Amino acid sequence: MNEYIASMETLIRRKKENNKKEPTLAEKSEFMTSWTCFVEENGYAGRAEEFLYNGFGFCGAEPFYLFLKQASDQNDILKQMFSGKNYGKDSNVTFRLITHLFALMLNDEAPSNILAPVIKHFPSACRNKEGKRLGTAVKTMEKYFLYVLSPTVVLHPLAEINLKPEMINNFMSVLSSLTGELKQIDSLRKSAVTNIDRIEKWAGQYFETVGRVDAYSGSKPGESHKDLCPASEEHFAHGQRNCDLSNSEMKTSSHIDSLQEILMHAQSLATGLLKENKEQKKRITELETRDSNNSLKLEEASKKLEILETTVSGLNKEKNELEKQRLSLQNILDAKEKLLEEKEKEIVERIKMSEALSRDRSRQADERLQRIASKIRIEYRDFMDALDVPMTVDLGENMRLQLLSIFEILEKGGMKIE
Fold first, then answer.
1. CA 303 to chain centre
2. In angstroms, what is the C-alpha Rg of the chain?
3. Largest Cα–Cα distance of the chain, in whole Å?
4. What is the pLDDT of residue 265?
5. How far apart (Å, rounded) are the C-alpha atoms in residues 90 and 413?
6. Which residues contact 282 (CB under 8 A, 6 or more apart)?
7. CA of 34: how far to CAs of 37, 295, 305, in Å?
8. HEC states along 105-138?
9. What is the mean pLDDT of the chain?
């Protein structure tokens, strides 16, 4: 639930910050999915209603109509909408919602039991809190009704809608007023002009049917159906048939009675076909909903795949860079190892040379000592010979000369006495 709220709040905030005129298809799809999932879990009242009005610029009334069609009690859902806290809070948004919802219902050939509440509330939704018609009503009618209404859809007969005649007349009066102003606009699209003509015929059929029923119900002699029909009919005088058939005119020919029977039979067949058509459209809607959900899932999967592909591409680039760095470091390491090997060889050679020099110096030192010992040995023998001779002046003098000779030998051998 929190993820749906966060998604819708982010989309609405982003739209306000960027001041976007038209959201992207991805944003519309995300809002549609988030709102429908949220309302299915939490119901319409509360946050779902608030998000529907605040996020109207994304999908209009589409998410609400999808929720309405799937509801078990559709009239209760409509009651919740008309009694909601946000209904009428912003008159412009409320009228856009009602207008767009009505167009979607007509396109879907919705049953009369859910068309009736919308028709009933349509005139009041078109007025502001002061009771005046909204300044944006004409533009809303153009964008959210005439451009949304399918030019091929069969409009539900107004006479079959269970509402008081004055309610339908009030609705038709507001509708004709808006379409009358729109018809004066030269830049209006062809589809909108076509829909205006169809609405006029739609209204004409209603007034004609009402007139015919009044004729058979026993109107006063000489009373025309122009008198029975409301003043709103005058707004549809452009090419419409007047409903001023009198009783005398309808009774002048028996041929009309037979045509009436044929017409009633045709209407019965048409009602059966319409019912079957509605069931088929309901199945199509279900399939479209499934297809839409599958498309959303596919789009999400495609986005995830795109993100993963981007990630993999980035990782591959990073891997290539690291591989280059590894090769560079490996070359440096190989050079260092080669240099170290050369240094080790040099050290081994120097150690060998040092050992050889050490041996030579040791040998030379031994030889030097042996030479010194050889020279001192003579003096030593003379000393040993005179060891037991009593000391005399000549012997002492001779000993002093021997010591001097020994010191000279040692100095010559490399010893420094002084």
1. 9
2. 56
3. 196
4. 52
5. 123
6. 69
7. 5, 15, 21
8. HHHCCCCHHHHHHHHHHHHHHCECCCCCECCCHH
9. 82
- pLDDT over 90 for what percent of the chain? 40
User: In whole angstroms, what is the distance from residue 209 CA to residue 229 CA?
Assistant: 11
- Burial (CB < 10 A; 0-12, 13-18, 19+), residue 335, is exposed
Report how far residue 315's alpha carbon sits from residue 309's, in angstroms, rounded to the nearest whole number: 10
Is there a contact between 412 and 369 (Cβ–Cβ < 8 Å)? Answer: no
Residue 244 has pLDDT above 70, yes or no: no
CA 271, CA 180: separation in Å to the nearest integer?
Answer: 31
Q: With residue 330 as reference, give the H or E element that holds it.
A: helix 254-385
Helix, strand, or coil here: 133?
Answer: strand
Written as six digits, the tokens of 109 are 């050939």
CA–CA separation, 352 and 343 (whole Å): 14
Backbone phi and psi for residue 129, each to the nearest 5 degrees, phi listed first: -65, -20
Three-class SS of residue 162? coil
Nearest Cα to Cα of residue 199 among 166, 182, 175 = 175
Nearest to residue 96, comparing CAs of 59, 67, 130, 131? 59
